[in-house]
Design a protein that fits this description.
The complex is a heterodimer of chains A (114) and B (112). Chain A is mainly β and 114 residues long. Chain A has no helices and eleven strands. Chain B has 112 residues and is mostly beta strands. In chain B, β4 and β5 form a beta hairpin. The chains are: A mainly beta (114), B mainly beta (112). At the A-B interface, β4, β5, β9 and β10 of A face β4, β5, β9 and β10 of B.
Chain lengths: 114, 112
């Protein structure tokens, strides 16, 4: 059974550009969550999607957005990149949203903004 | 607002030692607590999941306990090995909402 797949693994972008990250959940999982990990702030919740609907959102500016497709794959987009957006972005999938099931994480996308 | 704290921030032990990692949370209205392992530059690997109604979970050399009323969880690692070297994170899922709130992690080094 394939795990959670995130692409690309590494990205280098320039300030002001935009970026799109992709996450393919485990087959059959309908919930995808996104987290940002930085040395200073640790792991912080960005948002969660379930059945193509955003169910929950963290305290991030509107430059961070996401969507989920009918096959449960999810993308997150960051516009007008800032240096502080440099981080490891992790996505996690689960069978359902809002239920106490195990979350499985991908290997992450390392974004560097220069 | 839920806050999760992990103590110690870093730990270095000789191979073979038994050790305990601590996690505390401020709001006891949790749905479950999950322990993860993270290797440098990598994603998170789930180790143990404890539902709020459970007191402990075991997997191999790992044992996690949960005391919801006091807002504490411990991860016990028996007979540590160099391959256990990693950062260990605990995360709580509250009864409302679907987000996980993470601690800052304990960076464990097991020396051969």
């Amino acid at each position: 059974k394939a795990g959670v797949t995130q692409t690309p693994r590494y990205l280098i972008k320039t300030r002001g550009q935009q970026v799109t990250l992709s996450c393919s959940p485990i087959s059959g999982h309908r919930s995808v969550s996104w987290y940002q990990q930085t040395p200073g702030q640790g792991l912080q919740f960005l948002f969660e999607y379930f059945s193509e609907t955003q169910r929950n959102k963290g305290n991030f500016p509107g430059r961070f957005s996401g969507r989920q497709f009918s096959n449960s794959r999810s993308e997150m987009n960051v516009s007008t990149l800032e240096l502080g957006d440099s981080a490891l972005y992790l996505c996690a999938s689960s069978l359902e949203a809002g239920v106490g099931l195990r979350y499985t994480f991908g290997s992450g996308t390392r974004l560097t903004v220069v | 607002k839920q806050e999760v704290t992990q103590i110690p921030a870093a730990l270095s032990v000789p191979e073979g030692e038994n050790l305990v990692l601590n996690c505390s949370f401020t709001d006891s209205a949790i749905y479950n607590l999950q322990w993860f392992r993270q290797d440098p530059g990598k994603g998170l690997t789930s180790l143990l999941l404890i539902q709020s109604s459970q007191r402990e979970q075991t997997s191999g050399r790992l044992n996690a306990s949960l005391d919801k009323s006091s807002g504490r969880s411990t991860l016990y690692i028996a007979a540590s090995q160099p391959g256990d070297s990693a950062t260990y994170l605990c995360a709580v899922k509250e009864t409302s909402g679907s987000r996980l709130t993470f601690g800052e992690g304990t960076q464990l080094t097991v020396n051969p």
